[in-house]
Design goal:
The protein is an alpha+beta fold and 78 residues long. Helices cover 32% and strands 33% of the residues. It has 2 helices and 5 strands, in the order ββββαβα. Strands 1, 2, 3, 4 and 5 form a 5-stranded mixed sheet that branches. The longest helix has 15 residues, at 60-74. The mean pLDDT is 93.
Length: 78
């Protein structure tokens, strides 16, 4: 499965895609970083991730926290 992540200025959205089909889109508010509660929500909605793609306008802190969280929680780098 592929994990697609779209980080905006105040919300982080994600969806899982498999076999050319996009699953339900989910979203959660953020305050500049991604947290464990977000990661747990992602894990509950799909997986395992074979590939992770991110679009991020949330800034460098968000990019760093996402990369660290995804590596530690899913074993994948975006």
């Amino acid at each position: 499965m592929m994990l697609l992540i779209d980080v905006g200025n105040s919300r982080i959205k994600w969806a899982w895609a498999s076999g050319g089909r996009l699953g339900a889109q989910r979203s959660q508010a953020h305050s500049g970083t991604a947290g464990r509660d977000w990661l747990e929500a992602v894990k509950r909605t799909g997986g395992p991730a074979q590939r992770i793609l991110i679009s991020n306008v949330g800034g460098a802190n968000m990019a760093a926290s996402l990369a660290e969280l995804l590596l530690s929680g899913l074993g994948q780098r975006p």
